[in-house]
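Need the bound structure for S-adenosylmethionine, inputs here:
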Amino acid sequence: MDLKPNPNGPDGAHPSDARIARHFDAKVAEPLAKCEDPSLVPASQRLRDALLSLDAVGRTVLELGCGRGGLLLLLVRAGVARATGVDLSPASIDVARSRFEQAQLAQRAHFSVGDAARVPLEPHDWVILDRVLCCYPDVEGLLANTLPAAKHIYAFAVPTSRGWRGVVARLEDWLDNAWNTLRGQPCPGYVHDLDLIEDRLVMAGFRLRHRDRQRLWHIAVYERVAQVP
Ligand SMILES: C[S@@+](CC[C@H](N)C(=O)[O-])C[C@H]1O[C@@H](n2cnc3c(N)ncnc32)[C@H](O)[C@@H]1O
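Answer from helper R.:
Posting the output first, comments after.
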């Protein structure tokens, strides 16, 4: 995929970008992250299962906030033809690239560092945001830039904002951020309004195909039913 330079230039970056990059670069550098098998957390496993129940063979997939590329690697092994990963964290992108090289699948993947709410994105069959909308304050900007890139499927995992689970998710975010701030790595999480996210999906021509829940996580797969100009 050709990622053209950000028309806003580096100075146009969202104020959160550097903080998110620092936080996730530091996570990748943690000793545990280096030796641990970067397998998927339970919410990501649910998302993976939902995606693997679709026909992956020959698809093109764009994952925004791909982290260390674990989900993309699984999808390419399942038959995805071309995988594109974008993340704000250069260290995560380095790990993703080297995992694909080690698996001898580098020719089927392209990774780049960038803000998914701002970089120009080429259309792909599937677009995935796995636990990413909740890192980014401008959820509307992130949706507006990424929804048009999905030709068929838009899949995501976010903390639910509804009911008592929404209250607990907000409390967990608050505690996480307090802990990260104490460690000198502030990186607030966001429990964005699910009604707003669903509304933007419908306005962009998508309908719900599959929904799941894992603890406080809401997992959803939408399919495009209309092309919105
Ligand atoms: C919680 S991690 C999830 C990583 C991966 N999706 C997974 O589930 O293992 C969130 C990732 O999203 C990235 N991220 C957050 N906001 C982003 C944005 N606007 N553009 C690109 N990447 C972003 C972070 O750098 C981080 O790697």
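Comments: The domain at 15-160+192-224 is CATH 3.40.50.150 (Rossmann fold). The chain has one domain: 15-160+192-224.
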